[in-house]
Amino acid sequence: MGGSAAPRCHRLPAAPATHVGAGTVLALRSRSPGAAARGSRILATARHTLELAVPLGRDGRSRRAPAPPTRPFGGNPPRRRRSDRTPPPGDRSRSARRARTLRDTARHRAPGDGAGRDRVTRRLGIGALPGGPRILYSAGMTAAIAALLVAAGTPATDAYLDQTRTRWEQVARQIWEFSEPALQETKSAGMMADLLEKEDFKIARNVGGMPTAFVATAGSGSPVVGILAEYDALPGLSQQAGEAKKDPRTPDAPGHGCGHNLLGTSAVAAAVAANQARISQKLPGTIKVFGTPAEEILIGKTFMIMAGAFKDTDVVLSWHPDDKNQISNGTRLALTATEVEFFGKTAHAAASPWLGRSALDALELFEHGMSLMREHIQPTARIHRVIKDGGKVANVIPDYSKVQVWLRDKNIASVEEMIGRMRKAADGAALGTETRAKVSVLASVRDPVSNAVLGKVMQTELDRVGPPRFDDKDQTFAKALQKEIGVPQAGLATEVIPFGPGHGSTASSDIGEVSAVVPLAELNVAARPLGTASHHWSQTSCAAHPLGFKGMHVAAKVLGASLVDLLTGPQAVAQAKQEFARSTQGKPYVSPLAADAKPQVF
């Protein structure tokens, strides 16, 4: 659509594939039960139309580029004399007439321009819808459309997603309305699983001991390609949709401040589109959707790994809403979430304080030690904390206190080194206050293992689809948000960043754990203004705004086409697995959680 790469034909790459290609258009575009069969019967018409219109090589691509336009784009073809318009003997067939129409229009459009393709459909008597021709239930018309889609290099997944765009926006909006936090995503997960089940996916629920985790499977055999869906909201980030000032829908309620309503919906839409193509083209292979809850507390995917959910999967794709359009190359930070508890002895704060040993004193001393430690850590490291319990009333010496501490850095080894120092600070604080300290690991995720092979597959599709097409209203809203937050008013990203190292963020995710057990690549698509961050009310506002839906739609197209690329490209799957084997050699996966750990909110 808006990418710089040359259009590629995914659906009819070679002459033998034309049969399934014609059937693909009918099956995806028609509600008639006999669509695929009619697609087979019109094979000869479709191929003849296409060959007359655009001579093809063995790879199904045009052997001849369209002639340059002879007048400004948009002009009408020159009128011909009646004698010129009379078909020669033997050239009166319906497909031959359509072929001449295709050739005439091609001479008067810029190569690769979508508007020219719409004009072709109009001249064939077919109205145009945004993103593709309106479908008539005529076998002959469908043959012409099949030829057009092949010549234009439009993936069937794109066509399906364009047709069902409103449906997916409604799903994303509904999940935004639910705004369910970690391990409480009952409605969101149920809605997605039920939707996939209606699309002929088999659903395994309650995966890893989590009622809101599921795995949806369609197809059989190899390759097994997966996609990650997330749908949990963040506490305290409720916000009105499309508002440039903080205005909670419900004070202190959860909100989709990380855009997971967009993330999960796009993943499901891409999987459904790819499965439609798999069925229509009779492709071998299996598509899996991993419904992963509790990403915001970094445990969902880890418990699913422990349950063996990813055991037989060859490759996995993921994406996340962002302020840029790029392939993330493993620059997310490793993170370990810990809980530090202190146990003291209670006493009356006025009558006999000497009898007490304050757990709050221990926590404060520990906090001071961690503050001093910040001067002596790597520039890439981060330490965050929140006090969960500091006592109940001021006139009772508190015998219990608790603080959560999250530590991040560029790799898990550095995080583990910081945890060792933190344990010493906790022990020292306990020693100095005659209390007892306990340090527990709540969750841990490593820095992702990047996979360039998979990343380049998605980069090719991102270049083809192009960035979201934001309009002036979207840009105005984005700049209003930027002004309110206090960042440069640069609007929204309108370019695709070329593939390269170092693309990512300082955030952390449990996709790092998945990347350590199966080859994985992550896509980022702009769904919030440049310079803004997630985990903020502004992202909640964007997640139910047209700009967020536009980013979601681009992500679905990239992911859907990439899934089909992998189903039809066993070499890419094999190369991704080889790269994964090299990257993880000598590093067998060890879960960061205890074998008897149970999913819980913290």
> Main sheet: which strands, in order across?
3-4-6-5-7-13-8
- Overall SS class: alpha+beta
Please report the distance between the alpha carbons of the first and last residues. 44 Å
Annotated CATH homologous superfamily of the largest domain? Zn peptidases
The CATH architecture of the largest domain can be named as: 3-Layer(aba) Sandwich
CATH fold descriptor of the largest domain: Aminopeptidase
Radius of gyration using CA atoms only: 28 Å
Strand count: 13
Task: Tell me the count of domains.
Answer: 3
Overview of this protein structure:
There is one protein chain. The protein is an alpha+beta fold. The chain has 3 domains: 15-73 and 88-154, no CATH class; 165-332 and 448-583, 3-Layer(aba) Sandwich (Aminopeptidase); 334-445, Alpha-Beta Plaits (2-Layer Sandwich), CATH 3.30.70. The protein contains 20 helices and 13 strands. It has helices at 18-29, 35-41, 43-53, 82-85, 94-106, 114-123, 139-152, 156-163, 165-178, 186-198, 260-280, 300-306, 359-373, 412-433, 452-465, 472-485, 511-515, 537-542, 546-567, 570-583; strands at 128-129, 132-133, 202-205, 214-220, 224-229, 285-291, 315-322, 326-328, 334-343, 382-389, 400-409, 436-445, 520-526. The chain has a 7-stranded mixed beta sheet with strand order 3-4-6-5-7-13-8. Helix 11 links the parallel strand 5 (224-229) and strand 6 (285-291). The longest helix is centred in the last third of the chain and has 22 residues, at 412-433. The two termini are 44 Å apart. The model is unreliable at 1-95 and 97-152 (pLDDT under 50).
